[in-house]
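Any chance you could type out a protein's amino acid sequence plus the matching backbone structure tokens because I've never seen that pairing?

——
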Amino acid sequence: MLKTLIMKYIFALTFLIIAFPVQASVYTWKDPKHDITLTFPDDWMRQAQEGDDMRLHILAPQGQDHAACRVMASNDNRFLYVPPQGAIEVSQFVHDQKSMQGVLANRLRYDNVRLIGYQSIAGLGKGPATIAIGQFAKDWNGKKLSMQSIVFGGYVHGLETIFQCEALTQSWKRWHPLFMNMASSFDFPAKGAIHKHGKYRDFMADGFVYFPMGAGNAQGKARY
């Protein structure tokens, strides 16, 4: 009887282990310069940063499938004060298709870069962004590896942000879900209030404004 109960317990325990696998631990990184945060598996390896705009470079354990991700950020301050209705247009201007291809071809110096997908309306952190899918050739130990990459390009109040991940083309489907999960964790503090506070007068509805044209014309000339 006791032996039967023990066997049932072992079977039940084995089923629980199979049904509920141990979740991998994660690490939340915070950039000390721009306060950007990103969550990724804690067994990913930090790599050397190349340039001041390269805030984070991580590699999959043992370099599996050459999977890697990068965070780039810089204050270019071209568009510091943009009304909410213009934020998407500014993001699309800063990170158009040519710019996104340049991240891979010029910033990361990959060969034979071509975009196979581009989406002009997306999000990264607390702001709008564009997304590009690119393919390129990577030199490794004298070989040319076929790679695929996803690039998010965001822009908010003068802060340009880029989140880029890559892996071997043949293994892309394996890594894509993790890359998207990382992208969804990308965040930074808001620089402006998301919602309006106080009373805002609609000055655009004021109509005509009269400018004096001389002493003989008390009312003056109407202009918008």
User: Anything to note?
Assistant: Residues 1-22 have pLDDT under 50 and may be disordered.
